[in-house]
Amino acid sequence: GYTDDPVIGPNYYETEQIINAFNALLRRMKVLDDSRQEFVSNVSHELKTPITSIKVLADSLLSQQDVPNEVYREFMQDIGAEIDREDKIINDLLALVKMDKKASGLNITSVDVVLLTEVVLKRMKPIAQRRNIDLTLESKRTITAEIDEVKISLVIMNLVENAIKYNRDNGWVKVELDADHQYFTVKVMDSGIGIPGDSLDHIYERFYRVDKSRSREIGGTGLGLAIARNAVLMHRGTIDVTSTVDEGTTFTVKIPLISNGSKVL
Ligand code: ADP
């Protein structure tokens, strides 16, 4: 007997369901829009920081007369470092945006994972040596996997780079590779500063850093782990972390040996 209701009209229950679904959709859209706005505002802030520094450095050089050669060089070096920072942020952002386009997907080939890891570690060695950090690789077997070589390289590179950056002088970084019949695992362990418990849930967020000033100083963009996590999820893998402050951190990445990719991020 509801069908004649002059206010709510026919099929009352169905109408209510549609309205509920529509409201749920609106709420979901609002959440998406808020996080998009936050991302854009973060990006703008991050991109502006080096530009502001460059402007200040250039202005103060120009305002001085007869600047001694060493001072001039020092300012120019600082300007160069800020430009490098800007370049790094832009490259990281491009890598993220590229992975966000779900259609871009994975470029799967058959990859020797031990060799790939060796290549990454060779590139990281000079950075580790600068602070006398011992960087070692232990692989328990040969591992061949159907993966996107570039993206998995990026994952290992970001984790090892962090393990070096957030370490102490004379510390160590150990990378361990292993596999069973379904997955291979990459463990990156360090003797570094560790991550406080309340930060662990946030480290994969874009631009999140435990210590902003420290991360900036050592050239962090706050995007490395967001990129790593995206790449892992695209392979239908998992990434986990355990950490003790002042003792060290362990990241464990688990990737299927045969990855047909994932469009659900
Ligand atoms: P960043 O460019 O700042 O290194 P990431 O996304 O790679 O950004 O990491 C986010 C934050 O997580 C870092 O700023 C740092 O505070 C923390 N972090 C990441 N890896 C480690 C680690 N191995 N040891 C201690 N802290 C870490």
UniProtKB/TrEMBL annotation:
Its main location: membrane. GO terms for cellular component: plasma membrane. It is found in: Membrane. Residues 42-259 form the Histidine kinase domain. One of its GO terms (molecular function) is phosphorelay sensor kinase activity. It is an enzyme of class 2 (transferase). Keywords: Kinase, Membrane, Phosphoprotein, Transferase, Transmembrane, Transmembrane helix, Two-component regulatory system. One of its GO terms (biological process) is cellular response to phosphate starvation. Its EC number is 2.7.13.3. It catalyses: ATP + protein L-histidine = ADP + protein N-phospho-L-histidine. This is histidine kinase. It comes from Butyrivibrio hungatei. The lineage of its organism: Bacteria, Bacillati, Bacillota, Clostridia, Lachnospirales. The chain holds residues 241 to 505 of 505 of the full protein.
